[in-house]
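Q&A log
Question type: sequence-to-structure
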Amino acid sequence: MAKRSGYFWLVAMLFIVLVIDAYYQVESSVVPIWQTRWFLWRVLAVMIILIGIAFYYYLEGSKKRKKDLEEFKTKIIEEQEIQWKVIAGELHDSIGQNLSAINIFLQQNIRSSPDTAENLQQASDLVIDTIDEVRRISQRLYPKQIERLGLTVSIEAMTARLSAAGEITFATRIDNIDNILSRENEVQYFRIIQEILNNTLKHSQAKNVNLRIRKSVMFIVTEVEDDGIGFELTNPANLGFGLINIEERLRMIKGVIEFNSERGKGTNFKITVPIK
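Response status: OK
Response body:
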């Protein structure tokens, strides 16, 4: 506001100077004022000033629109995290507890009804599998273990689950990065790693993935390298929505991403996130 006010007074002063100058020129001129060279130069000066004002407001409008768009994207992601947290809590606390109660009931009937024990045991096994699936879905929706176990263990557990779920072997070297980001930034950072690894699992056709997370005085540097099929950087469509989502989350935590990929030579990602 102060900057805009300063521009206003500068333009006002220039306008006053031009008015005073015009008044004395009219008083002293012996020919019509519009026939003098002075008039042409002043008209040119006024046009330059008006163009400058218009350009200034165009730039300010562009900055405001960009800021509003970034705030809108941030709000969407924050609202998304809130909804995911609510859904994850409902899955874990409500559905998970109900399934656990059903399993207890089945176990009691197995002991009291030997004739139907086999069928009841199958139902019990199915309930246990469902409970595990609910926990996995809840975990994907909102990583509660960050609060309980810390960011480092949470990332290690995630890579272990992904390795068990697919045909990719993960090699990890992770420095202790607990409590060096805010809780909100820890969740965003976890989501970024999760998105990259999930995309690698789905699309890379890789056999091996190396994940290296290094902590320095000022940054967390994350490198993900796979030996998959890669993609062509010349075609932005190949990057997909996943990378857009990653870049937006990185913007929220003031991080940057670099990546390199070639057909048949795998893909390398490098993410740098400031600690403070």
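Response note: DSSP finds seven helices and five strands in the chain.
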